[in-house]
């Protein structure tokens, strides 16, 4: 009789263990679903920031080029004005 009770108890424990395993699987799937969205948003936001930094670097580079161009133009026009003044003085 004791063996039959142990077998019954073992069967009950086995069923409980299977139910707990199903619960763990369900919770694992649910956890994966709940973490996928924030992970995806984080990755997308990171890519947006990388793109923004690249665009900022390009704009800064263009601004630096424009600044150099303006300086060169100012120097060029100042040289022309100086030459014109020199010619006016000699007249």
Task: Explain how this protein is built.
The structure is a single chain. By secondary structure, the chain is mainly alpha-helical. About 100% of the residues lie in helices and about 0% in strands. The chain is built from 1 helix and no strands. It is rod-shaped, with a radius of gyration of 39 Å. The model has no long low-confidence stretch (mean pLDDT about 90).
The amount of helix comes to: over 70%
Alpha-carbon distance between the termini? 134 Å
Spans where pLDDT lies below 50 across 5 or more residues = none
- Global shape: rod-shaped
Ordered list of secondary-structure elements with their pairings:
Layout: H1 2-90
What attributes does this structure have?
rod-shaped, mainly alpha, 91 residues, single chain
Short synopsis of the structure:
This protein is an all-alpha fold and 91 residues long. The chain has one helix at residues 2-90. The longest helix has 89 residues, at 2-90.
């Amino acid at each position: 009789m004791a063996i039959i009770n142990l077998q019954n108890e073992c069967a009950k424990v086995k069923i409980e263990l299977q139910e707990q395993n199903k619960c763990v699987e369900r919770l694992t799937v649910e956890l994966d679903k709940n973490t996928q969205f924030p992970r995806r948003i984080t990755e997308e936001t990171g890519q947006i920031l990388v793109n923004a930094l690249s665009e900022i670097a390009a704009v800064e580079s263009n601004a630096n080029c424009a600044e150099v161009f303006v300086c060169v133009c100012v120097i060029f026009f100042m040289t022309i004005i100086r030459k014109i003044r020199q010619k006016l003085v000699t007249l």
